[in-house]
Structure formats: structure tokens, C-alpha cells
Design goal:
heterodimer, A: mainly alpha, 2 domains, two-stranded antiparallel sheet, 5 helices, 45% helix, 5% strand, B: mainly alpha, Fumarate Reductase Cytochrome B subunit, 59% helix
């Protein structure tokens, strides 16, 4: 006697669990294309290079927050645009006017935009949402 | 020496992985190797388990801890020595989820006057629990890169894991627990002379591989960040077999490929290492067999029909001689 049927059953369960991402994406329908961002029409450059902003914008915003709120410094010497004011509402949102079509597209795609504590976009807990939404 | 060799091996693997940052090689390290590693991982596991399935089930092991089912006034240790399938499931669940057998770990010390003392030692159990559970949490958290839309449970786990809200991006508790537990498991081997004596190259290699994956993952999230949207395009493309555009692949940092290559190495090595205990734990005969030897007849699977010569046949054959010699016979 051996336990072949039980073992094979367990193996099938294990394989189904391990390949979850593959059949989940089949079940949930093919995922849409990666997000496309609505870029500002009147500006072609951000304060830092696009590649660096894509990876490190949260650091920049974090540093700005600390500089403004804790140290009272308000000017930032940027690589591309000279001296700019460290202000989310005036500087960042001055160009990127719509958070739905800019911030949240990527944040939702990479699942860092939830409303929970680990969600990345906690900016709006303090900052007012700009008009024009 | 084993420590240095395995550390060097992991460092070399990581450096090789960094080559994925170069054009053309990013296809190899980003697409071909992950698929190959996954195929080896799944195929290897299936091969190992089918090997186990071919082995006949041994006789029920009665010498597990605890009182077996006996007379009604003797209390049975139902979880340690179960006689029913539910008892077995309970024992198995406690072993798989709580690592119950590690609670039996003891440490010995020679006291003054040459007395030998034994005491329970829970640190190994604690570190093993911390490591395995945080690794599970980390694996589930990574589903955010492999699914679209991301299941709500993953989001919930992310929120709970990052509830301290320290740093941007938020530092997850499971990351810290994972690294600390692994560091302890390594130091335990490195510091204790007896453990160092019985440790093999493979033991250190796996610890360093996991530490390398943990540290490179931590760096990717907190220190040297990369474009996470491009990473998700790649990982989601892998999960859905849709591939990824070369332009996107080119924007991902070398560190990510180092991380990914270490994961690939771990996956490919998995079926050939002691990590198969992930599946083998379910096949431990002292855990998964109910002790019902006194209730159910177990036939030896490799029994062959034994030629027997019964007393009746013996008497039939020699009756006349027995009578002549005056030996009493049962049948006249």
C-alpha cells in the first residue's frame, strides 16, 4: 500500500497555490496596459530628470516636507529649473494639475495608492485637492 | 571556510545578476532566467514529490511522544499520538504552522561540580517562526507586482505590515523581522562550536542567499530606488506571459536584476536543497501516520506468499512413523 492518491492530491494543491499569479491574471481578465500619464502641456522639464523623479519623487517630497515644516527653508536648488519653491501645491501641482491622471495612475498600478496607512498618497490628508478636478 | 566560500558564492551571484542592467543581457536576466528558474523549481518539486509517492508507506510508527490510545481509563495524548485522521491533521497543522517539534530543543550546560543540566531553549523556535512567517508575509506582499487588479487581501496585509508609518516608502515590519531572524540563524551556526562543526556549505549558502535577497530587496525599496512601474510591467508581463517592452526593461536599475537573479538562483536550487522540507514536512512518517496499529490491520506492502507447512500436513506425512514410535497423534 502507498499513499499515492493523497500525495498527488496534495501536490496539485501546492502547484495551484504556487502558480497563483498566473491563473489569477487569467481569471481576472488580461490586465490593461501600463498607465500612461497626462503630462503638462506647457512644461517639458520637471525639477529633476524624469528617470530620477520616477524612482525618487517620494524622497524629494519627504525632504521638502521636512525642510519646510521643520526647518522653515522654502527654496530648492533644482537641477533643471534653477531655484524653485518647495511647495506641493504651488510647484508640483502647478504643472501636474490633475492627481487622477498623474499621481494616482501609477500609484494604483503599483498598489501604493490605497487609502490605508501604507498607501503612498498621504499628501491629500493635509493638502487641499487643487481645483480643476 | 564553508562560511567564506558560500558568502563568496552569493556575492558572485549578486554581481553576475547586476549584469542584467546592460542591454541585451536584461532580456536574459529579466525574462529567460526567471522562466527557466521557475520551470526548474516546479519541475524539480514535482519530481521530488513523485519520488516520495513511489515509496511504500512504512508501518505506523508507535514511538511518537505521548500515550497511545489504550484502555478507556488511560488518557490518550490525542495530538501527540493520534489514532484518527483528525488527530493527525491537528498534529500536522501544529507542526507546519507552529513548528511544535522545535519547542523540544534543549541546551545543555556543565554546572559546577561536573553536573550536567538540560534546559528548554526557545530561541531557535522563535527565530524559525519569525523567519518563516515574515517570509510568507513578504511573498504575499510581492503579489502586488504579479497581479492586476491587486487582491484586497494583499492591500490589507500591506497596511497591517506597514502600520508604523515610518519613512517614505513605509518600512514594513516583516522586512525587519526577516533580516533579524536570518542574522540570528546565521550567528547561531557561526558562534556555537558544536553547531559550526555540523554545519555544511549548503546551510550557510542558503542563509546567505536569503540574506542577500532580503538586503537587496530592502535596498531597492528604501535606499537605491528604481522605477517601480517599470518593474511591475516586467513582473506582470512574466506572470501573464505577455512580455515587456525593451525600452521599459532598459530603465530598470541593475540592483533590481541583482535581486531578481538571487531569487532565480534560490528557486533553481530549491528542489536540490534541504529547502524541500517545504513539501517534505507533510510526508514525515512520525507526523502524518495515525497510531492505529491496534485497530486496523496493516499489511506489509512487500509481503510475498510464504510457503508454510502446518502441523496437520506434518502429521499426515509422518502419521505411520509417529504411531510406530509411540508418539501421540491428533487424528487417527
Amino acid at each position: 500500500m502507498n499513499d499515492r492518491p493523497t500525495i498527488i492530491g496534495g501536490l496539485v494543491i501546492a502547484l495551484v497555490a504556487l502558480t497563483f499569479p498566473i491563473w489569477y491574471s487569467v481569471g481576472a481578465g488580461r490586465p490593461g496596459p501600463p498607465p500612461e500619464l497626462e503630462l503638462p502641456a506647457d512644461e517639458s522639464q520637471c525639477v529633476e530628470d524624469a528617470a530620477s523623479m520616477r524612482a525618487n519623487h517620494m524622497d524629494l517630497l519627504d525632504r521638502w516636507r521636512d525642510a519646510v515644516v521643520r526647518e522653515g527653508r522654502r527654496t530648492y536648488r533644482s537641477t533643471n529649473l534653477g531655484e524653485v519653491e518647495m511647495s506641493l501645491t504651488k510647484t508640483c501641482l502647478g504643472c501636474h494639475r490633475n492627481r487622477e491622471t498623474f499621481c494616482l495612475r501609477c500609484h494604483e498600478y503599483a498598489n501604493v495608492g490605497g487609502e490605508g496607512p501604507a498607501g503612498g498618497v498621504r499628501c491629500w490628508a493635509c493638502h487641499l485637492e487643487p481645483e480643476g478636478n | 571556510m564553508n562560511v567564506l566560500i558560500s558568502l563568496a558564492a552569493v556575492v558572485v551571484l549578486f554581481l553576475v545578476g547586476l549584469l542584467g542592467g546592460l542591454p541585451v543581457l536584461d532580456i536574459v536576466f529579466g525574462i529567460l532566467l526567471p522562466y527557466a528558474a521557475l520551470a526548474v523549481f516546479l519541475g524539480g518539486l514535482v519530481y521530488r514529490v513523485l519520488g516520495y509517492a513511489r515509496v511504500p508507506v512504512p508501518f505506523r510508527i508507535t514511538t511518537t511522544c505521548g500515550q497511545e490510545k489504550s484502555l478507556p481509563w488511560i488518557r490518550q495524548a490525542k495530538l501527540d499520538n493520534p489514532s484518527s485522521i483528525w488527530g493527525v491533521i491537528g498534529r500536522m497543522a501544529l507542526e507546519v504552522l507552529c513548528f511544535r517539534s522545535l519547542l523540544r530543543n534543549t541546551r545543555t550546560r556543565l554546572l559546577e561540580g561536573g553536573r550536567l543540566a538540560y534546559a528548554t531553549s526557545l530561541t531557535l523556535w522563535l527565530a524559525a517562526m519569525a523567519f518563516h512567517w515574515s517570509m510568507l508575509v513578504i511573498l504575499i506582499r510581492h503579489l502586488r507586482l504579479f497581479t492586476q487588479p491587486v487582491p484586497g487581501a494583499v492591500q490589507w496585509l500591506q497596511d497591517v505590515d506597514g502600520f508604523l508609518e515610518v519613512g517614505v516608502p513605509v518600512i514594513y515590519l516583516s522586512t525587519l523581522v526577516f533580516l533579524v531572524a536570518l542574522a540570528y540563524l546565521f550567528l547561531r551556526r557561526a558562534v556555537n562550536p558544536q553547531l559550526r562543526y555540523i554545519s555544511l556549505l549548503d546551510d550557510y549558502l542558503l542563509l546567505f542567499l536569503l540574506l542577500g535577497i532580503g538586503l537587496s530587496g530592502f535596498s531597492l525599496r528604501h535606499l537605491i530606488k528604481t522605477d517601480i512601474v517599470a518593474v511591475k510591467e516586467l513582473t506582470l508581463g512574466l506572470a501573464t506571459f505577455r512580455g515587456v517592452s525593451l525600452a521599459t526593461l532598459g530603465t530598470i536599475s541593475p540592483l533590481f536584476f541583482g535581486h531578481l537573479f538571487l531569487v532565480c538562483a534560490l528557486l533553481a536550487y530549491f528542489p536540490f536543497s534541504k529547502l524541500v522540507h517545504m513539501i517534505g514536512i507533510f510526508l514525515s512518517p512520525t507526523r502524518n501516520l495515525a497510531n492505529n496499529n491496534r485497530m486496523v490491520r496493516h499489511v506489509n506492502p512487500w509481503d510475498y506468499p510464504v510457503k508454510v507447512h502446518t502441523y496437520e500436513e506434518y502429521e499426515d506425512e509422518l502419521r505411520e512413523k509417529m504411531k510406530a514410535a509411540g508418539i501421540p497423534v491428533e487424528k487417527e
